Amino acid sequence: MAWLLADVRPPAPDRCPLGLLPTASRCCPAGEREDHGLCIGNAVGCPQNMSMKNVAGSEQCAAVAQRINIAGGTITLAPADWETEGLFAPRTITVHAFTIDNIEYTWGRYSDCIAAHQCDPNILAFPAAPPEAGTPITNIAPQKAAALCGAAGGRLPSGDEWIFAAAGTEGRRFPWGSTGLVCRRAAFGLAHGPCAHGANSPELAGSRPDGATPEGTLDLAGNVAEWTVEPQGHLARGGSFLSTVAGQLKTWASEAANGPSSHIGFRCVYDRN
After folding, report:
1. CA nearest 218: which of 108, 38, 67?
2. CB of 103 within 8 A of CB of 267?
3. What is the C-alpha to C-alpha distance for residues 203 and 20, in angstroms, rounded to an integer?
4. Residue 150: which of 249, 250, 266, 54 has the closest Cα?
5. Which of the residues in the chain have pLDDT under 50?
6. Residues 6+ apart with CB under 8 A from 258
7. d(Cα 26, Cα 39) in Å, to the nearest integer?
8. In the prediction, which pLDDT does 8 show?
9. pLDDT on residue 82
């Protein structure tokens, strides 16, 4: 009987997309290995939505940021399940058309911006251990995140804009739809399960194409929570690699953060005339 029970256990969750291989807590490109939460070594291939980038003699994979147009509109949000009752009040959101980055702002983008003399290198210091070019910037105050967006002609999104990009006019529970929270769609539960254990940093930005919105925006659930501008100040939205339950990853989920954190990053939006 014990043998039969072991034989029918469900398989481990399929948490890495095509082109990336599972390690203890990360999904790394072929040819790389995980070391203290980083994917290191020379990548020998990248997923379709990423390109090879040479960083200090090391071949790394990184997604290329693109801008996604979001049509304005109105949605009404209301608790639709037991996980969200009492977490937010029903309300109607109306936004004008805007443009949003398809991925979170990465270390590689910051490095390229400095090299092009478009970003002040004093805005943010690089960590002692060189970060992966394709991973999101974290441990950044919202004011400094706003400065980096400003260098690109953008700004941090308002809370309503962020929700609208994630939920769409149909008010989706998750960026991709209202069901199907699985490890291949969102980088969540990587520190203490259910998708992995031991993670202390996010995945490569854009590493979950199966979790894209219909418009093509990636990682609006999981990986890093993202700074937004709210009437009461700044909030972090979308959940992160530390999130463990669905309620933390819903399109309307948020957390009140006191300042920079290893699980909070950002992405930029741009006004449309």
Report:
1. 67
2. yes
3. 11
4. 266
5. 1-12, 82
6. none
7. 8
8. 47
9. 45
Q: Are strands 264-265 and 225-230 parallel, antiparallel or unpaired?
A: parallel
pLDDT at position 98 is 98
Q: Starting at the edge strand that comes first in sequence, how are the strands of the sheet with 269-271 ordered?
A: 67-70, 98-101, 269-271
CA–CA separation, 154 vs 223, rounded Å? 22
Single out the residue of 222, 266, 221 nearest to residue 242, CA to CA: 222
Determine the number of helices (DSSP H) and then strands (DSSP E) in the chain: 4, 15
Give the pLDDT of residue 87.
59
Task: Please state, in angstroms and rounded to a whole number, the distance separating the CA atoms of residues 223 and 189.
Answer: 9
Do the Cβ atoms of 139 and 261 come closer than 8 Å? yes
- Residues 165 and 72 sit within 8 Å (Cβ to Cβ): no
User: Would you list the DSSP string of 162-228?
Assistant: HHHHHHTTTT-SBTTBSS---TTTSB-S-SBSSS-B---SPPPTT--GGG--TT----SSBSSEEEE
Cβ contact 75:169 at 8 Å: yes
Q: Name the nearest CA neighbour of 162 among 241, 49, 78, 70.
A: 70
> How many angstroms from the chain centroid is the CA of residue 259?
18
Structure tokens at 42: 């020379």
Task: For residue 158, give both structure tokens.
Answer: 């308002």
Q: Is 109 within 8 Å of 126 (Cβ atoms)?
A: no
* Token pair belonging to 149: 């967006």
